[in-house]
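Dear colleagues,

For the upcoming journal club I promised to circulate an example of a predicted protein-ligand complex. I picked one with arginine because it came up in last month's discussion. The inputs are reproduced below in full, followed by the predicted structure.
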Amino acid sequence: MKKIEEFLESISFDKRLYKYDIQGSIAHAKMLTKCKIITDSEGKRIVKALKEIEKEIKTGKFKFNLSLEDIHTHIEKRLIEKIGDIGAKLHTARSRNDQVSLDMRLFLRDEIKEIAKLIRNLQKSILKVAERNIDAIMPGYTHLQHAQPILFSHWIMTYFFMLDRDWERLLNTFDRVNVSPLGAAALAGTSYPTDREYTARLLDFSKVVQSSMDAVSDRDFIIEFLADASLIMMHLSRLSEELILFSSKEFGFIELADPFTTGSSIMPQKRNPDVCELIRGKTGRVYGNLMSLLTTMKSLPLAYNRDMQEDKIPLFGTVDTLKGSLSLYAKMLDTVKIDKKKMLASLEGDFSMATDLADYLVRKGLPFRKAHQIVSKLVKETIKKKKDLDDLTLKEFKTYSKLFGRDVFDTIKVKAGIAARKSLGGTAKESVKRLIAQGKEIVRKA
Ligand code: ARG
């Protein structure tokens, strides 16, 4: 018997919901009073006792017992212990089925607000590091090969906008979480003259789930959150991957502050980027949680099934991982050091100004495809001669096209290439400054 109880219980993890369970029960008791299903004094005694129970749990005095299965049963049992039959009236016109969905929604609502704030915080750290290093130049990559020089600030601001979509997605999900299932009872509604709109208002929900069956049988609002969380972790994981690469000896672009790295037990020189690695690693778990709940839900007949108890561990795990990752990230970016010289030096001899050279010929009247052909040949042969673009004389340039003039030497300067990309969203300092200004406006608003 004990083994079965241990197998069935959820109290070991759903006790985390106690505050929401009590909040929901207080609203329910008030509704029962308002609708004259219980008397005024009964309602008041229930509310008072519920508040006492909340305190007992908060201060660690409350005794949990596996045989009572879940947080809902624990609180109701204690209520009856405290005030007898009056307490036993609380469960009129509701069921654990609407209660558990309610608790999950109340919990997730708070967590979404918190996570949205953490995203904004991280965005603020990104803005700061971008502004501090507005002029730093680094290689921009495609296929992890040097492509074109960019501003470091442009690179990091890219993550700002990814996170901004994450923030929006999360708040969008909030609208579907913020709907009250309370009063749906087991599945079919109730024969008591209840007022579901009233409890929804008391609990600050924007509306009620219309169908009582829908209210108790779906967990799509959790799945949606788990998908949002997966995207956030995917973004953090990509940033982590880049920071890991950039902090390696081969790149040497950045240095993470000591607390974010660890040493090796045998190699004294090691500074491993463990925080980045673990965020990248934990992304797997967060994706797993999404898959886990999608799979749990996929063939459940309507309405409530006990399978749905399996929504909690994935949700709690994802919330904790996400909050931990986001708050550490902000601190990590606040303390990261950028090696501007190393970044710039890495562009030497990489021919990443080749596009600018082709654009130069286009400005002198050549069609782009032709200019591309000429510059490809020029680059290939210059590499063969073990030279860089800077080493070429005007005479050498002219052997490829007569259109080359003295001004070509300015064109192939990295700084000139960056300054030229003034197009909307481009890497010129003015354009990136515009991105930063937009970013500041975004975080100022919320
Ligand atoms: N522990 C359950 C869960 O988390 C609560 C709802 C139980 N309802 C029921 N009819 N057994 O889903």
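Two points we might discuss: Strands lie at 137-142, 145-151, 179-180, 207-208, 254-255, 337-338. DSSP finds 20 helices and six strands in the chain.

See you all on Thursday,
B. R.
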